[in-house]
Structures are given as C-alpha cells and as structure tokens.
Design goal:
- The complex is a heterodimer of chains A (228) and B (243).
- Chain A is an all-alpha fold.
- Chain A is built from 10 helices and no strands.
- Chain A has one domain: MetI-like fold.
- The N and C termini of chain A lie far apart (55 Å).
- The model of chain A has no long low-confidence stretch (mean pLDDT 93).
- Chain B has one domain: Rossmann fold.
- Chain B has a 6-stranded mixed sheet with strand order 6-7-8-3-9-10, with helices on both faces. Chain B has a 4-stranded antiparallel sheet with strand order 2-1-4-5, covered by helices on one side.
- In chain B, β7, α6 and β8 form a beta-alpha-beta unit.
- In chain B, α3 packs across α4, α3 runs parallel beside α5 and α4 packs across α5.
- The longest helix of chain B is centred in the C-terminal third of the chain and has 16 residues.
- The chains are: A mainly alpha (228), B alpha/beta (243).
- The structure holds adenosine-5'-diphosphate and magnesium ion.
C-alpha cells in the first residue's frame, strides 16, 4: 500500500525520456555492433582455443589454459581498463571503441573456449577412430566429424553465454563508449527522470535479449533442422 | 604374395606385453577367423594391422607395404585396409549416403555425383539400398552395422578387418549381419574376423587362429581345427563358447 501510494506520488513521466528516442537508437546500435563483433571474434577465438586445448601440443595447451584462467578470474571492467588505459603506456593508443571491441573479444573468447571444448570432447572416441581408419587426416576429421556435430550440441550453451555477455557489455560505458547503457546518463542529464530512463533502458535490453534468443534459435533450426 | 604379413610382432602398453611374437600370413581371398578370450590381444592385433596402434617389434606388411616404416603413409595404407568395429561408429550427423561417401570424396577425391552411385552400389551389397538417405539414428543395430560394412567396402580395400561386429547386437539381428559377411567373403574379399560365432568360422573360414595371452596359440584349417583342437586351452575355450 505504501509503495503504491509512493508510485502515485512520484508521477511517472515518460514523455521527455521517450522524446530522446534517437539517442536510445544510437546507443542500441553501438551495443549491437559491439555484441555482434564480439560474438564473431569470440567464437573464432573460442573454437581456435578449444582446438588447441583439445588437440594441440602441451605448451600451446598451457598457453590457452592460462589465457582462460586469467580472463575468467578477473572482472571484465578491469580487462577493459588494462587495454584502454594500460596499453598507451606501451605506446599502443586505441580509441575507446577499438579498445572495447578488443577487450570484449578477448573476454568472450575465453568463456567460449570452455563451452566449445566440452562440445569437442562430447564426440565419442570411436568416431574419431573410424575417421582415422577411413584414411582421413586430423584436420579432415576435425572439420567433417567433430566441428559440425559438436556445434550442434554447443548452440544452447553458447547462446545463453552470448546473451549473458551482451548484457555485460554495459561495462564499456566506463571507457566512454556511447553504448546503450551510456545513453542512459545522457538522457538522464537532459530530463532528470532517472527512474524512467533506467526503466526504458531495462526494457530495451530485455527486448534485445529476447530477439537474440529468437535469432539463435532460428539459426539453429536453419543449420541443424531436418537432421536427426 | 600374401595380402597381410605379420612377422614376429611385439606390442606393449607400458610394461604390459599384449602381443608377444605374433606371426600370421594371410593370402588373397582367405577368411581368417580369430578366436580367443577377452583380453587375449585380438583387437590389438587388428588395430596394429592398419596402424591405429604402433608396434614395438617385428614387422607388418600389407600388400607389400611396411606399415611401421616411418615413410609409410598411413592414410594411403588405410584406404587398403577396411576395419569395422563392434560399436559401428557411424557419423550420426551424416546421412547413410554421406557416411559412406565422406572418405571416398575427401580422401580419394571422387565427384559427388559419382559417389552417390558408389553408395548405392555398396548398399545393395549389404541389402540396404532403400536407406540411402536415412540417418543412422533411424536404423536398427543390425542395419547400422551393415552400413558400417558398406562404408568400409566403398573404399575398395584389399583386406577387411572385423572386430566382433555382431557382439553388440541382439541375437535376432546377428543373423542379418553374418549373412552380409558371408556375401562379402563370397565376393572374394580377404577378411580377418575376430568373432565368437564358431558356426560362421566353421562354414566360411579358411583358417582359424586361437589367441591366448598375446600369442597365436593354435592355428589351422577352420573345420579341422575346430573339430580337433590340439591344445587344452583351445579345447577349453571351445567347450565354454559352445555350451
Ligand atoms: N589403449 C590401451 N592402453 C592400455 N592397455 C590396453 C589398450 N588397449 C588394450 N589394452 C590391453 O591389451 C590387452 C588386450 O586387449 P584387446 O586387444 O582389446 O583384447 P581382446 O580384443 O582380445 O579382448 C588387455 O589386457 C587390455 O587391457
Ligand atoms: Mg576386443
């Protein structure tokens, strides 16, 4: 009752906030760009890392596991700051968008390695052996027997990971990338309607996440449907 | 010239000697059945023949080519040596046709149009022509094993190895696979079969090999040797299998 009365007293006003819709769209596009770039780069890095972890020589396995351990045990925000504020000390100066994309790929790649590796390892040894017995080379077995089949089993885990990750990209606003989350503070400073701004932002993230879920499910059906 | 020539091979896993001075020479068109208790080294011997396992002593020649010569291209060798496993090992994401034609297409570089005819041909040999576009999961165990045999036949190997190919099947499905093996033998294929099907060994085998503790304990013409085992161990094994 108390809360209801408080809501009434507050008097939500979305008009000014929604009038800034162009800013929201710009922010959304930045978040989308960052996410898609990170999905593509992270997936490539993850598959490469997982292939090395599973089939590579000892020293390379060690390098990949160290990378995975470092990324998974430090905050994304710290990784962003190391790349954006740290690298200039070595003479590597990146604009904030580039730094963000690098950090995000680096971050997502490590989580993806683990998922992809589990997928590779789910292929029964007998199938690899059958491939070898048929005269296929290692890379041919990987491509024709392991990759497609394991991708199929990985897609559900990967899509939850990717969506979870997309929500986490909000951290890039800390290095002044004007992503969706950063848009909130812009609109807030114009309208002073903090509550409404963050409700709208939450709604956009929610819709974006659901749309991605649908896209992943559709892509899955397109790629793997019809095969039992 | 024998198709397969195994000379005094030794195979160890760590300190465990699994094959101990094994020799066997197989002529073109022979059907060798290999019997023996579990753990006697039968599977390991087959796996050495197509280079899936390296050996620590002796030599193996397939069609005159030395398997353990570092210069031997195992991928070329394996096109000449088919192997069919107990657990089928079909690729579940590929149709029957693609299972069969994968290696011919990417290893032997056959055109896709041609390879479909190839698949149809070998499927006819195993009586499953109508399953060309089926997926493995929709097949019975016996049908899966017949597809696995067809997949191996499609490489036109010079010798085929069969490792207990009916052991994972229900008794009523064993017959259909044995029938296919019989057809493959009748077509003149050189075959080495690890099996517990004594009846098959008696009727279709040219020779039987009894393995015991990693050695060829007894070897001889199929029917005679099975009727008159010369060693107490083989006699005991046969009476255990037959009763
Ligand atoms: N990959 C392996 N690593 C270690 N030991 C093995 C391996 N494969 C087989 N062995 C051992 O070799 C012996 C013979 O096995 P195997 O050839 O499978 O016998 P069989 O097929 O006659 O049952 C067994 O003692 C088994 O434990
Ligand atoms: Mg065995």
């Amino acid at each position: 009752m108390h809360l209801a009365r408080a809501v009434v007293r507050y008097g939500f006003q979305f008009r000014d906030v929604l009038a800034a819709w162009e800013l929201f769209v710009e922010g959304l596009l930045v978040t989308l760009t960052l996410s898609v770039a990170a999905f593509a780069g992270g997936l490539a890095l993850g598959v490469l890392g997982a292939a090395i972890r599973t089939y590579g020589p000892g020293w390379a396995k060690f390098l990949v596991s160290s990378y995975v351990a470092v990324v998974r045990n430090t905050p994304l925000l710290v990784q962003l700051f190391v790349i954006f504020f740290g690298l200039p000390a070595l003479g590597i100066r990146l604009d904030s968008m580039t730094a963000a994309i690098i950090a995000l790929i680096f971050n997502l790649g490590a989580y993806t390695v683990e998922i992809v590796r589990a997928g590779f390892e789910s292929i029964p040894e007998g199938q690899l052996e059958a491939g070898r017995a048929l005269g296929l080379s290692g890379p041919q077995i990987f491509r024709h027997v392991v990759l497609f089949q394991s991708m199929r089993s990985m897609v559900p885990a990967l899509s939850s990971q990717f969506i979870f990750f997309m929500l986490g990209t909000a951290a890039v606003s800390q290095i002044a990338v004007t992503d969706l989350f950063h848009t909130a503070s812009l609109v807030q400073s114009r309208t002073f309607r903090d509550f409404e701004v963050y409700i709208v932002i939450a709604g956009i993230y929610l819709v974006l996440a659901q749309v991605m879920r649908l896209v992943f499910a559709g892509g899955y059906r397109l790629a793997f449907g019809g095969r039992s | 010239m024998p198709v397969v020539e195994i000379n005094n091979i030794v195979k160890r896993f760590g300190s465990n000697t699994v094959l101990d001075d094994v020799s066997l020479s197989v002529d073109r068109g022979e059907v060798i059945t290999v019997l023996g208790r579990s753990g006697s080294g039968k599977s390991t011997m087959l796996r050495c023949i197509n280079g899936l396992e390296p050996i620590q002593g002796g030599s193996i020649r397939v069609d005159g080519v030395e398997v353990n010569d570092p210069a031997c291209d195992l991928r070329v060798l394996r096109q000449n040596v088919g192997i069919v496993f107990q657990s089928f090992n079909l690729f579940p994401h590929l149709s029957v046709c693609d299972n069969i034609t994968l290696a011919p297409r990417i290893v032997q570089r056959q055109a896709r149009e041609h390879s479909r005819d190839l698949a149809r041909g070998v499927l006819r040999q195993v009586g499953l022509e109508d399953k060309l576009d089926a997926f493995p999961n929709s097949l019975s165990g016996g049908q899966k094993q017949r597809v696995a045999i067809a997949r191996s036949l499609a490489m036109h190997p010079k010798v085929m190895l069969f490792d207990e190919v009916t052991s994972a099947l229900d008794p009523e499905l064993t017959g259909e696979v044995l029938k296919v093996l019989e057809g493959v033998a009748a077509a003149g294929m050189t075959m080495i079969l690890v099996t517990h099907e004594i009846g098959f060994a008696r009727r279709f085998g040219s020779r039987v090999v009894f393995m015991h503790h990693g050695k060829v304990h007894e070897i001889g013409p199929a029917a005679e040797t099975l009727a008159n085992p010369q060693t107490a161990e083989f006699a005991a094994f046969l009476s255990a299998v037959l009763h």
